[in-house]
């Protein structure tokens, strides 16, 4: 299936109710399961990842398939390792290509019993759940924050708690801090000093919880506004003092011509003049937004040099390769100056005819390229239903703003 997206004018006006944060939803679901908290989570994300987590946590079987849900795979690996029983955890073909050895090694070092059913270092996994003692693990600082979060979520339930020692540069620190902040909302204290995180053995409190709106989801509307001729949108569901690292997008998008103003329940964004001739930014704390900014900067003809993208190659797809390839179809010559970097110096080539943007089973590819409709309405997007992973009603909201979305 393909979608062709167009709009009769480049004016944006309306109200967008943002999806609930997938990152927060899945963390809270694990916490509730660990504390046997049956209080319903309000505004729980209805995306595929969160549905997969909810289904598995409520399942009566011992064999689980997470599909493409990366956070679900990582969080459940840690969770199931301490739930007494014998469990099998697998996923899609792409999931079987995404490494998990760092997390498995860390868990096995504190008493878990996890083995590989196919290729060493990759799902599917056989997990023999038992009571874990905990104590200490050592990880590289550039390890995926999802591995670290998976360990942190179970840390207070371990007999000796858990001390995580991180070596080298710590990437995605904001996601680690988000996890610790959410844990604190449930009564768990922690220490994050220098290169070490310590969580003592303690009990999660059972509390009602409301999940805030997703800042990653908000980023796509910022991109639409940056490319519009004029407009004003209200983004419902955002918090001013958010735990989400992606909330750091506001000052960056201001350079690209989007003004933001908070209200009690959300934020107004409107078009303004861009004040940037070249965008240099370290995405260490919000790597999931690199696709959004790369596409937006190219379409605004603003050269860029992005760093802090070390984790992008082990996401739903190799996002560095995907961006270079798909933006190349549009005539933009992107490069990878070094590991974890992406750049465009303004070089152009002839664009292809009848362009179809491949999404690589990656929801963020479809979402990041959607704003292209305001600049090149003849471009189509392949497999647009991948947005269900994080933003199920995205295309319907586009229609409500006056876009024509056709198969």
Automatic annotation (TrEMBL):
InterPro entries assigned: Enolpyruvate_Tfrase_dom, Enolpyruvate_Tfrase_sf, EPSP_synthase, EPSP_synthase_CS, RNA3'P_cycl/enolpyr_Trfase_a/b
Residues engaged in binding phosphoenolpyruvate: 22, 70, 98, 146, 319, 364, 389
Biological processes, Gene Ontology terms: amino acid biosynthetic process; aromatic amino acid family biosynthetic process; chorismate biosynthetic process
One Gene Ontology MF term: 3-phosphoshikimate 1-carboxyvinyltransferase activity
Pathway(s): Metabolic intermediate biosynthesis; chorismate biosynthesis; chorismate from D-erythrose 4-phosphate and phosphoenolpyruvate: step 6/7
GO cellular component, one term: cytoplasm
Subunit-level organization: Monomer.
Protein name (Swiss-Prot/TrEMBL): 3-phosphoshikimate 1-carboxyvinyltransferase
Source organism (scientific name): Labilibaculum manganireducens
């Amino acid at each position: 299936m393909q979608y062709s997206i167009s709009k009769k004018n480049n004016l944006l006006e309306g109200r967008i109710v943002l999806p609930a944060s997938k990152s927060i939803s899945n963390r809270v679901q694990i916490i509730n399961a660990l504390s046997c908290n049956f209080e319903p989570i309000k505004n729980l994300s209805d995306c595929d990842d969160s549905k997969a987590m909810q289904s598995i946590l409520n399942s009566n079987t011992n064999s689980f398939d997470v599909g493409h849900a990366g956070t679900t795979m990582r969080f459940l690996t840690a969770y199931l390792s301490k739930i007494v029983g014998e469990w099998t955890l697998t996923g899609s073909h792409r999931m079987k290509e995404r490494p998990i050895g760092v997390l498995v090694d860390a868990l096995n070092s504190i008493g878990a019993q996890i083995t590989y059913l196919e290729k060493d270092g990759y799902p599917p996994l056989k997990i023999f759940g038992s009571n874990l003692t905990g104590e200490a693990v050592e990880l590289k600082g550039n390890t995926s924050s999802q591995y670290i979060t998976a360990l942190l979520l179970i840390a207070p339930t371990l007999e000796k708690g858990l001390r995580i020692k991180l070596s080298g540069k710590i990437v995605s620190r904001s996601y680690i801090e988000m996890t610790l902040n959410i844990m604190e909302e449930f009564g768990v204290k922690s220490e994050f000093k220098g290169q070490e995180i310590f969580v003592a053995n303690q009990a999660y409190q059972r509390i009602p919880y409301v999940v805030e709106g997703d800042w990653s989801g908000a980023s796509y509307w910022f991109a639409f506004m940056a490319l519009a001729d004029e407009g004003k949108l209200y983004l419902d569901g955002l918090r001013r003092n958010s735990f989400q690292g992606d909330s750091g997008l506001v000052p960056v998008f201001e350079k690209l011509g989007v003004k933001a103003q908070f209200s009690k329940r959300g934020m107004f964004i409107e078009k303004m003049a861009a004040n940037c001739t070249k965008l240099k930014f370290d995405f260490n704390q919000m790597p999931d937004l690199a696709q959004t900014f790369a596409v937006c900067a190219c379409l605004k003809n603003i050269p860029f040099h992005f760093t802090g993208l070390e984790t992008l190659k082990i996401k739903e797809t190799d996002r560095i390769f995907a961006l270079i390839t798909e933006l190349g179809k549009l005539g933009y010559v992107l490069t990878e100056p070094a590991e974890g970097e992406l750049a465009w110096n303004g070089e152009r080539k002839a664009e292809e005819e009848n362009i179809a943007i491949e999404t690589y089973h990656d929801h963020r590819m479809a979402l990041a390229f959607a704003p292209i409709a305001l600049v090149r309405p003849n471009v189509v997007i392949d497999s647009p239903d991948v947005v269900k992973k994080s933003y199920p009603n995205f295309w319907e909201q586009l229609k409500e703003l006056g876009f024509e979305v056709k198969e």
